[in-house]
Amino acid sequence: MAEILKSFTFEDLPTRPPITGRPKISDDFQQTVALLSGWDGVTRRLIRVSPSGVIRVGSARAVGVINVVATIDGYVVTCNDCPTSEVMLRAFPDNTGRVFLNIAAAAALNTGYPLFTGEWINLSVNNMNSLQLYIEKDTDKVAVIYTE
After folding, report:
1. Which domains, and CATH codes, for the chain?
2. What is the rounded average pLDDT for all residues in the chain?
3. Contacts of 89 (CB under 8 A, 6+ apart)
4. DSSP letter string over 19-82?
């Protein structure tokens, strides 16, 4: 049997008793764990299925909403450090200006993806801190819903 040198955990897969030290693991168990997990480029994630065994393809559970409010014209903000798998951003329906969204680069007027009044976009990202927003008008708002 192989010995686990560096154990990793899944927050949504508790083990009883907790893994400590350098436990031994059989080849068949190692293959099972490999089949139950996926790699998104940053972290391992469990692959979920329905009770009938169908792989669940869809959005992760939403865990929070952040409203970003501009305090000046040309308001620029980087979203907080928050691990996530997906985000949905929506420019508020009563905005008077545009919002520009950029990923891992600075957003500015006419730099990034434009969101006009009431428009929204859904993105897969590993952390919200990769999102940069430029809000054109003072008091305009963006709602950000993020998943686990």
Report:
1. 2-46 (no CATH), 62-147 (2.60.120.10)
2. 85
3. 99, 101, 115, 120, 121, 123, 131, 133, 142, 143, 144
4. P-S--EE-HHHHHHHHHHEEE-SSSEEEPPB-TTS-B--SPPPEEEEEEEE-SSTTEEEE----
- Per-residue model confidence (pLDDT) at position 45: 74
For range 122-132, the mean pLDDT: 92
Tell me how far apart the alpha carbons of residues 124 and 108 are, in angstroms, rounded to a whole number: 21
Q: For position 38, what pLDDT does the model report?
A: 76
> Is the pLDDT confidence value at 131 over 80?
yes
Is the Cβ–Cβ distance between 111 and 134 less than 8 Å? yes
Each residue of 43-64: pLDDT tens digit?
777 777 766 677 766 677 889 9
